[in-house]
Amino acid sequence: MKRLFGLSVALALMPLAQAADPEAGRVKVATVCAACHGAAGVSVSDAIPNLAAQRAGYLVTQLKALKDGTRKNAIMNAIAAQLSAEDMANVAAYFAAQPGAQAGARSGLLPNVALTRVNFPEGYKDTFTRYHTINFPATKQVRYYFANKVAAQAARDGKPLPDGSVLFAEVHAAKLDAQKNPVSGADGFYVVEKLLFYTAMATGAGWGSEIPDMLRNGSWNYAVFTTDKQRRAGVNQAECLACHKPLDKESYVFTLKQLAGAK
Ligand code: HEC
Ligand code: HEC
Is 213 strand, coil or helix? Predict the structure, then answer.
């Protein structure tokens, strides 16, 4: 009995012990990881590490830690959670085989993942529900959250947010006192000094169809708007998608409960 058990464990582990498949790794990297780390492991921004020529063993160890949560990073925890042990071995073998990055080199964004259809919601102050406020002590900012009628009604009814939903936030710098600490009003929220930018997410029929499943948030697209209501250039939508991805049971919305409770 004991022997049989040992044998079945050995059999179950066997596929993992097989040689990694860098070609399968290349395909996964090209569709998903490339959005941030570049197709050959040279990343798209200073905040994202190059993986080209990194040792395979180190990459697998990091991916395991990111999957089980012992290494914390909201974006990579969401990505690693979707990788099998085999995927990890394959992508690690692929990255390890790439030539190291030239100093200062950067990859471009993946066009199909960066594409967004969200437009500035003109007139939101008159037609949207303002449903929530959050202070951000670390950045000394306060955010005001707005939702259009379609989104607010669905949330109130406990239904998934349908196509046509728009969620929108004004991001303000807080007014600071002489010690450079945010000044709070009688309601406990920071007093607004000035508008910095806006963030938005919206759904539309078929939106997201060109986004790979590991990043796709149903039919949500994301955008950041400058104070003159223009889409901010260079936003990597992959980051928005990855971080909101684990909230699939909440229509990908962090503040869904607050929206459902809004009058
Ligand atoms: C939305 C952007 C994004 C995508 C897509 C993405 N990553 Fe990452 N990745 C990051 C960021 C940001 C970090 C840095 C995390 C940190 O600071 O701890 C990172 C870190 C890592 C690390 C740790 C590197 C180190 O030096 O310790 C590995 C390994 C990794 N990613 C692998 C992958 C693989 C494999 C994929 C595709 C399946 C992938 N990533 C997709 C953004 C992304
Ligand atoms: C590191 C994780 C992370 C990333 C990356 C991220 N978000 Fe979010 N997002 C959050 C969290 C947490 C909240 C809840 C409240 C808050 O922090 O504003 C949120 C809230 C929002 C909301 C209000 C609706 C909701 O889900 O509660 C919008 C709109 C939004 N994010 C847009 C974006 C856009 C656009 C991007 C990409 C430019 C983005 N987010 C990237 C974590 C993230």
Answer: coil
Domains annotated on the chain, with CATH? 2-108 (1.10.760.10), 124-261 (3.50.70.20)
In this predicted model, what pLDDT tens digit does every residue of 69-106 receive, in sequence order?
Answer: 999 999 999 999 999 999 999 999 999 999 999 999 99
Indicate the DSSP class of residue 55.
Answer: -
pLDDT at 9: 52
Half-sphere exposure of 1 (CA within 13 A, CB side): 0
73 Cα–ligand 1 center, Å = 9
Please tell me whether the overall predicted TM-score, pTM, comes out greater than 0.85 for this model: yes
User: Are 244 and 220 in contact, with CB atoms under 8 Å apart?
Assistant: yes
Q: What are the φ and ψ backbone dihedral angles of 222, each rounded to 5 degrees?
A: -130, 155
Our mutation pick for probing the ligand 2 site, out of 148, 217, 240, counting the most ligand atoms within 8 A of Cβ, is 240
Kindly give the distance from the C-alpha atom of residue 102 to the centroid of ligand 1, in angstroms, as a whole number.
19
| Cβ 82 under 6 angstroms from ligand 1 | no
Q: How many CB atoms lie within 10 A of CB 38?
A: 24
Answer yes or no: is the C-beta of 240 below 6 A from any ligand 1 atom.
no
- Across 21-95, the runs of DSSP E, i.e. the strands, are none
Ligand 2 centroid–CA 255 distance in Å is 9
Looking at residue 18, what DSSP letter applies? S
Which position has the higher pLDDT, 11 or 147?
147
Buried b (16+ CB within 10 A) or exposed e, 147-176: bbeebbebbeeeebbeeebbbbbbbbbbbe
